[in-house]
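Running this now, will post back.
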Amino acid sequence: MTGPFSRTELLLGREAMERLQKSRVAVFGLGGVGGYAVEALARSGVGALDLVDDDKVALSNLNRQILATRDTLGQEKTEAARARVARINPDCRVTVHRTFFLPESADAFDFTQYDYVVDAIDTVSGKLALIEKAKAAGTPIICAMGAGNKLDPTAFRVADLYETSVCPLARILRKECRRRGIRDVKVVYSLEEPIAPLAAPEEGEETPPDTRPGVSRKVPPGSVAFVPPVVGMILAGEVVKDLAKGK
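Update: finished.
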């Protein structure tokens, strides 16, 4: 047993690995969280990945995003992710969608084609649209709650959205999902209170505003190398375990 996924098979079994190989997972958002989710899914033997983002690798991504290296600066994140997956598992079928997922673009995706959806975007309207579309298609979805302004990677938990606490983003989504009659949403959230950034950039130092659609903040949240990866790995772990069990 010397194949690329032989160590995984020792824990999950051959039938589970065959289910993973036949699975198609869509990852929406390829930043600090989504990039690591893609990494783990590719290394777990998932057979097909849809990668959705319209951002490019920037210098400010180097501190926490696995797709960000000096070699990939300026590249489309979807292309950087496609290339990385190919270097890990060339048999994985990768489809890229160079777009930000928004309610207006939701109909461009056929959620019935996916076996699982990973939500790693950070706009409320986008998350709600993802949840609604996945639920309507009967496709399992797992959503990342706030990972910015956090320093404790051990504080993250997997829970139903309605069992969460502390996280401001989860609080907003609970309210909006309740209004829409949406139940049973698996999420990864933190019990850590968000930390206020210490200071804005000093005069003469530029921190580019976050210009992605649906993001209104002028200065992005603080983030570190050891928090977003944990969230991404937890997301991927839940997907792999569920798919391996045939859920």
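The first strand starts at residue 24 and ends at 28. More later if anyone needs it.
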